[in-house]
Amino acid sequence: MTDNTTIVFSPDTLAVAKKIIARYPEGRQKSALIPILHLAQAEFNGWLSPEAMDYVASILNIKPIEVYEVVTFYSMFNTKPVGKCLLEVCQTSSCWLRGSNEIIDHLKKKLNINVGETTADGMFTLKTVECLGSCGTAPMLQCGADFHENLTIEKVDSLLEKLKNKNERSTYLKSLNVNG
Amino acid sequence: MAKVTIDGIEVEVPDGTTILNAARQIGGEVVPPAMCYYTSLKETGGKCRVCLVKVTQGSAKDPRPMPKLVASCRTPVADGMVVQNVTSPDVLEARKGVVEFLLLNHPLDCPICDQAGECDLQDLSYEHGTEGTRTEFERRTFDKIDIGDKIKLHMTRCILCYRCVFVADQLTPERVHGVLNRGDRSEISTYIEKAVDNDFSGNMIDVCPVGALTDRTFRFKSRVWFTKPMDAHRQCSKCCGKVVLWMKGNEVLRVTGRKDQYGEVKEFICNECRFEHKNTADWTIEGPRHINRHSVISQNHYEKIDLQNLKREVERQIVFQKGRQLPEASPNS
Amino acid sequence: MGRKLLLEHINEPGIQSFKVYRQKGGYASVEKALKTMTPDAVTEEVKKSGLRGRGGAGFPAGMKWSFIDKKSDKPRYLVCNADESEPGTFKDRYLMEHIPHILVEGMITSSYALGAKTSFIYIRGEYMYIVRILEKAIDEAYANGFLGKNILGTDYSLDLYVHPGAGAYICGEETALLESLEGKRGNPRLKPPFPAVAGLYACPTVVNNVETIAAVVPIVNNGGEEYAKIGVGKSTGTKLISASGHINKPGVYEIELGLPVEEFIYSEEYCGGIWKGRKLKAVVAGGSSVPILPTDLILKTAKGEPRLMTYESLSDGGFVSGTMLGSGGFIVMDETTNIVKNLYTFSRFYHHESCGQCSPCREGTAWLEKILHRLLHGQGKKKDIDILVDAAKKIEGNTICPLGDAAAWPVASAIRHFRKEFEEEAAALPAERNLELATH
């Protein structure tokens, strides 16, 4: 899946990006890198292609390698295309103690994919992640900005149904409201 | 100035000097090894942890010991500081651990590695490591890549000292390579395969402590200990032009910067000197270079033992010993 | 019922909004501090309160503030550490989600004390929905004159921003956090210099946990001495505990420090006992990094005294028989729990989260995980247990930042207290295994 559209922010997104950059002192625009990568990932189909990263570098006037170094460090940035809905299932202690493995197994069976894979229709990508700070409501998964907690097999099934019907790309950024 | 005692030997150094550099003033056994620190590259050091030492007294003013072993390459001395390096079993044990960690994923390909014989990791494991290994897992591997037509990146051998990244940052106009990914998946890379191409990129080879970055023009030409290192220079508009020619007969197989006894190049050279002048006629040859390190290269002596040099070294040690206070009897010393 | 200082109004409908929060006495600390106190007087109250950093290290907050370099002519920064990522810890998320204004208020009062003109809340990227909540609260604070130029008509001005991370536990380490805030990889810095001297943009900086900053609000309102009356000894005030695992009532509880551990686990007011009528086996009391303790040692110290929820009581006995209060991530395990498997999830976590900068952590965390994986898959050997202990020992204390210790302690303590289980894993044949972990 390559992106045919040109890698440029929409005027609205660019305005938000400029607002974010303005938060940081003169000469420290690089501080805006992570927030702007979030914008880019949301705008460019849920992943950061080399072109998208180079574009972000040009906005911040930094070297492309500085962007690659950061993108590959943080686990929320995808350097490969992902399905419309990225299902991130927590598997660390508290979630494991309360049955995250059953949730993961169920998702694998139900979606007929392994962890790290995307369904043939491009709808779901299954990922296991480490502690998301939802230990008191374990087991849980994150899809976009939403935490789905106290999961059971039934809840997972109805969530998948809902996501399929909605047929929208999941994103960490729901709205681009930025203060300042 | 600050007076600091390292393994019972006192030395006076300017304020702000690191423990490692204070130890280097003394020389010999008390100098901790260093795999990532590089004097002429700012911000290097602290990462490999082989130079850890024990500070048993913080300073004259505050004599409390430091709670953990510290990276001697990045810890400044204080007046009255007391440091243990080889006299501390804790330090030796920790260092043994670091060597083991560094070797967990390092390939055992010394027989086909161009760095063999002048490799800091070889020296380190020989001196501080253990025989054999406790790991039984498959080693981490990466594909070999050419970053330009002159430099080979063999990431599998890399110990992530970051020196080459600092070279690119501090010596070259634009850095195109860096450290990507995280944890034990970290790698030196350009991300999308790009050539590292600028006048000073070749220095990445000289600062690499292992065989991760090697000179493609020298690749598999000869084991280093079969070559003859000769100091030489030429007029160069880009750099100091002071190099070492690694020769076999009259053939120049390789050109490098001049490394000191700690493996550091003080004056970096340009790519033209390094890669484009493999002809003795291009150089004024000064004479053979003595390799003053533990490496295998110095084992294959082609030069006679320099008695003058040896005498000077003995005298120097005596001078240091003179000002030395008798160490207190302790099980550690 | 213990006193509630942070969660007092948690059940108040609409407490997320400025209006209700203000009606309930919110922003009083800003008024009091800016109008009646000097910045140093605010710091003095925090010192008197005995408040200790709530992120995990427990360093006295007032002392940390007093280290800030006031001679420097550079701007000073306050950065709130909302990168809550320690497994078992979710208190900051709970507080920010439900009472965002207490953090905003605490940031204003604390920034005033430190002389910061710009402050940041660095929040883990996965909490993106909370970024929206906080930004809304900040907008409301601006609209009501509590942020921006000349707050409440005084000379003091402050801008406050929320800055999201993007998935990296290591950014909870304060210098890694600052690197990340500068738009770089989250590699911890070598210290010295400490952030108080050279932090964000090489300027004097204080980094404090969400709960620490929120606690400044009641401290300034009621005075540090009042705060210090709660608790036991050097463990003053209240603490948010994140309770999870095999208990009847997982959740966030505000406790007065000094509460007996037994009461916390079994009383209806808190965890409500072990689920499914089972027995307690072990507890990780302060987030994944702290040593695990078996039932007898978590309920009572080795000397037989009741274990209390305080910094001192939990660490009584050192690492031989004690643990740490840490972040207050209280993970409870029932009698059916396989300790080796639980440890495996921790070691996988630290391997995943190591920044890779220094060799003992980069290589060591991966090795620990691999050995545990092998143990759990019928390929373990008895010597593996000794290698685990030795490798953990060689990571501990030898790394740039505390992640190395955090990876080593769970391994060392699990083997110390549950060695038999490791030996059983090492002795079992592959066929006898529940290969539950094999695919993940």
Would you write up a description of this structure?
The complex is a heterotrimer of chains A (180), B (333) and C (440). With 180 residues, chain A is α+β, with helices and mostly antiparallel strands. Chain A has helices at residues 11-22, 33-43, 50-60, 64-71, 93-97, 100-111, 153-166, and strands spanning 85-90, 124-129, 141-143, 146-148. Chain A contains 7 helices and 4 strands. In chain A, strands 2-1-3-4 form a 4-stranded mixed beta sheet, with helices on one face. In chain A, α3 crosses α4 (64-71). The radius of gyration of chain A is 18 Å and the shape is elongated. Chain B is α+β, with helices and mostly antiparallel strands. Chain B has helices at residues 19-26, 89-104, 120-128, 163-171, 203-207, 271-275, 307-322, and strands at residues 2-6, 9-13, 52-57, 70-71, 81-84, 145-146, 151-153, 178-180, 187-189, 213-215, 228-233, 242-248, 251-256, 284-288. The longest helix of chain B has 16 residues, at 89-104. Chain C is α/β, with parallel strands linked by helices. Chain C is built from 18 helices and 11 strands. Chain C has helices spanning 18-23, 28-36, 39-49, 61-66, 91-98, 100-114, 128-143, 174-181, 210-222, 224-229, 261-266, 295-299, 311-314, 318-321, 339-353, 359-375, 382-395, 403-427; strands at 76-82, 116-123, 159-164, 205-209, 231-232, 235-236, 238-245, 251-256, 280-284, 292-294, 329-334. In chain C, α2 (28-36) packs across α9 (210-222) and α17 packs antiparallel against α18. Classes of the chains: A alpha+beta (180), B alpha+beta (333), C alpha/beta (440). The interface between A and C is large, with 57 and 69 residues.
Layout of strands and helices, then pairs:
The complex is a heterotrimer of chains A (180), B (333) and C (440).
Chain A: H1 11-22, H2 33-43, H3 50-60, H4 64-71, E1 85-90, H5 93-97, H6 100-111, E2 124-129, E3 141-143, E4 146-148, H7 153-166
Parallel strand pairs in A: 1-2
Antiparallel strand pairs in A: 1-3, 3-4
Helix pairs in contact in A: 2-3, 3-4
Chain B: E1 2-6, E2 9-13, H1 19-26, E3 52-57, E4 70-71, E5 81-84, H2 89-104, H3 120-128, E6 145-146, E7 151-153, H4 163-171, E8 178-180, E9 187-189, H5 203-207, E10 213-215, E11 228-233, E12 242-248, E13 251-256, H6 271-275, E14 284-288, H7 307-322
Helix pairs in contact in B: 2-3
Chain C: H1 18-23, H2 28-36, H3 39-49, H4 61-66, E1 76-82, H5 91-98, H6 100-114, E2 116-123, H7 128-143, E3 159-164, H8 174-181, E4 205-209, H9 210-222, H10 224-229, E5 231-232, E6 235-236, E7 238-245, E8 251-256, H11 261-266, E9 280-284, E10 292-294, H12 295-299, H13 311-314, H14 318-321, E11 329-334, H15 339-353, H16 359-375, H17 382-395, H18 403-427
Parallel strand pairs in C: 1-2, 1-4, 2-3, 7-11
Antiparallel strand pairs in C: 5-6, 7-8, 9-10, 9-11
